[in-house]
Write a structure and sequence with these properties.
With 112 residues, the chain is mostly helical. Helix content is 73%, strand content 0%. Keywords: Membrane, Transmembrane, Transmembrane helix.
Length: 112
């Protein structure tokens, strides 16, 4: 694929991935068949900052986990009121990384 397209994708979407994944994403896109480019662009990535804000405001209800697609963990947090608040506080530090990991999984599913 064209390096210009890949660079544009990386500039626009770098915040959605962990920094140690960026080089792998770039290499995958460079070697990607042109026919899969549309699939990669159609993937909607979740914003880690939005997940953090949701975690701070409504983390006790599991809204942050529902947002990133962790339905089971969201139900668990909802039923336990965020693990009596402890789980909600822990997620303040973990939710951005979890969101970026989910985005990487979505990217890998699009390029397969």
């Amino acid at each position: 694929m064209e390096a210009q397209k890949v660079d544009m994708f990386m500039m626009m979407n770098a915040k959605f991935f962990e920094s140690h994944h960026l080089e792998g994403v770039r290499d995958t896109l460079i070697n990607l068949d042109e026919s899969k480019w549309g699939m990669v662009q159609m993937v909607s990535y979740k914003d880690p900052t939005t997940a953090l804000i949701l975690s701070l405001l409504a983390g006790s209800f599991g809204i942050d986990r529902f947002y990133i697609g962790d339905t089971g963990m969201g139900v668990g947090k909802l039923l336990t009121c965020g693990g009596l608040g402890i789980w909600a506080i822990v997620d303040w530090f973990l939710i951005m990384g979890a969101t970026r990991e989910k985005n990487m999984i979505a990217f890998q599913n699009a390029v397969v």
